Amino acid sequence: MNEIQLALQGLSCAHCVSTLERALGQVPGTHQIEVSRERARVQGSAPVERLLEAVRTAGYEARLA
Question: Which residues contact 13 (CB under 8 A, 6 or more apart)?
Answer without folding.
Answer: none
